Amino acid sequence: MSHGRRVKLVDNALSVAQVGSAVDAVRLAGSPGLVEETVPAAVQHGSGASRAEVPMLPAAEAGEPALVRVRRCVRAARDVPAAAGVGRLPPGDAWPTRFRRPLNRLRGDDVTTPFMDAYGPWAVIAGGSDGVGSAFAHKIAARGLDVVLVARRVPVLEASAAEIREKYGVRVRTVALDLSVPDAAADLAKATSDLEIGLFVFNAGSDDAGVPFLHKNVETHASLIRRNCSAVMETAHHFGAPMTARGHGGLILVTSGAAWAGGATLSVYGATKAFDLLLAESLWAEWHEAGVHVLGLVLGRTDTPSLRRTLKGKGEASPGELADPNDVAEAALEHLADGPVWIYGSADPTGASPLGMLSRRDAVLLMSRSWSAKSG
Ligand SMILES: NC(=O)c1ccc[n+]([C@@H]2O[C@H](COP(=O)([O-])OP(=O)(O)OC[C@H]3O[C@@H](n4cnc5c(N)ncnc54)[C@H](OP(=O)(O)O)[C@@H]3O)[C@@H](O)[C@H]2O)c1
What's domain 115-375's architecture? Predict the structure, then answer.
């Protein structure tokens, strides 16, 4: 393999050898383009299996980064039936060693980080179609992982998926699913059974908090518990098992400052978020030595469509100072290995509860006051 060499995509076609060379050329030379030199076809390197030339995807679009285009080429090399009667190209592990490494690197984001090796090849984002979850999906796809997005509203879900495919050239699978139904975890497991999931983010979880406990019926509370506790536990169990067996992977459970203490009108929401926080901490304790990174991500007010809907419903005009979902997701991914907890926006993000110095009673009273002041 010639490092730093530029390669030409001959006649709009790409051989297996060229894929590998192109990857190395881009990765090692930081080349912004894939031009100039023809790389001998794989067959000349003695590999019958890699003889096939596959059609290129459509020409690069204006402004499309070279790496994104290369990713699309690799997808074509995997997914398009090969020419010259050699059948479909073999999966990565069946490739001759000399081609396997660059391809495996390319499936991730080796150009910039080893993120793919630790958390690839697929990520699932439960609640990944808007707000914080959408920001996670973008940030993860930008690191080269393929993503599964889970949410209920199909138009929002599909629009988000299309944008990510277009922008990053990764594969995106959508799963339209209500995570508060009893079989949600089983349905999600089924919908992803053919994928290797290296990163799982459970984000869906907000609530129109600010309503007294008795003003909601029992089924509404139970539904919140199913989504924020049962589904979180069951999906963490499902995706965590193969991660620990492989010795790498990542799990992010998005929780809230409402987990620090009880408070009036926070009741079931705060309790579910405390569950998520303690579950994340416990799984971190059990899995970190096995190489699986677990993070309980504690958020304060964050600018999401969901929060804005809630505020509007309460007639609260000015949302005040809100965290940016993109900053939140970026920080969580950067600090995924710094668990068990990341308190976004805190001066001490891996530290203790900000209410930890107070008595439980004072913490509850403070929480109630501050929540009612925020919620109007
Ligand atoms: N925003 C804040 O100020 C704030 C503050 C503290 C903590 N948090 C935490 O941050 C996380 C994200 O909050 P968010 O404000 O972005 O709103 P969110 O409503 O929790 O999350 C939005 C995403 O979750 C999906 N979703 C919601 N309920 C779902 C269900 N039952 N089944 C499947 N998907 C569902 C939404 O799509 P569909 O609606 O189409 O299903 C959307 O993709 C939550 O865990 C929340 O507790 C947020």
Answer: 3-Layer(aba) Sandwich (3.40)
